[in-house]
Amino acid sequence: xxxxxxxxxxxxxxxxxxxxxxxxxxxxxxxxxxxxxxxxxxxxxxxxxxxxxxxxxxxxxxxxxxxxxxxxxxxxxxxxxxxxxxxxxxxxxxxxxxxxxxxxxxxxxxxxxxxxxxxxxxxxxxxxxxxxxxxxxxxxxxxxxxxxxxxxxxxxxxxxxxxxxxxxxxxxxxxxxxxxxxxxxxxxxxxxxxxxxxxxxxxxxxxxxxxxxxxxxxxxxxxxxxxxxxxxxxxxxxxxxxxxxxxxxxx
Length: 251
Description:
Blueprint: H1 14-24, H2 35-47, H3 49-52, H4 59-66, H5 74-83, H6 87-99, H7 105-113, H8 119-122, H9 128-136, H10 138-150, H11 152-168, E1 178-184, E2 190-196, E3 201-202, E4 205-206, H12 209-212, E5 237-238, E6 242-243
Antiparallel strand pairs: 1-2, 3-6, 4-5
Helix pairs in contact: 1-5, 4-11, 6-9, 10-11
């Protein structure tokens, strides 16, 4: 798929919408649009019709595409999906963070808020390892973003399928870092949620898809994706917890 070359800033509201959809377990498209979303749709229609007309990805390929991040906590997964629709800004954020390593806490949040990026990108400054993963695997990030823009509900459903696989292998369960629950939503679907064990601290997992989802090869090969510092062959590995601040979740 070709990356989109133009993003409307009105889509900055997408990250919060995605989080709400994920928490509610609504795995069907939302048909009603706000005026800003309608205007944005018109922009994308006139500038990126070649991407929108691309054939839909099959479920097996979507499963492989979301496999590297499907086990992220819900809000971080939603934020990562939203940020993936801006691959160029992901690279810009990585470069900006490299130049501003001394900024911490409120100073960091204030500085990134002045940058001309979508809120979903600005909020990722809280998760430097995730930014590095996305930037180092920019083709994957671009493919994920394009799939999310054109097949949002399918991508969310793929994340649920991969979580179910990880549960089946015993590699996704409540731990000191996260709380895993299986809930039935009003639509009758079962939704697997992952939330931080401590609401104020987020742990980002690293893992080998062939380990956490099962040794049997997937119908579509897993996308090449590297976790900096990850020891191959282990299941879920956790880095240091990240304390939430003003820049988190698109605040």
